[in-house]
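re the bet — no i am not wrong, look at it urself. input seq straight from the record:
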Amino acid sequence: MAIWTVQLFAYLRERHGSTVTVEAEPNVKSILSALENSGIAVASARLAVDNEFASADQPVQVGASIALIPPVSGG
């Protein structure tokens, strides 16, 4: 297990702050699960690793930049 710092955006940032820290295995699915277990709604959000959206089975390297981005709309 590793400790991951995840940047949050939009309404997630307003509800939980700009970053959260979770403990998880080094893959996207595990990090998303840890975020959900900490009370953050991840169902419609996407995880980005090093500025690119990541698939659920993608491994994550220690030191990677991680962000949770909810759907947004503009007008």
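see?? The radius of gyration is 11 Å. told u. also Residues 2-69 form a domain with the Ubiquitin-like (UB roll) fold (CATH 3.10.20.30). so pay up
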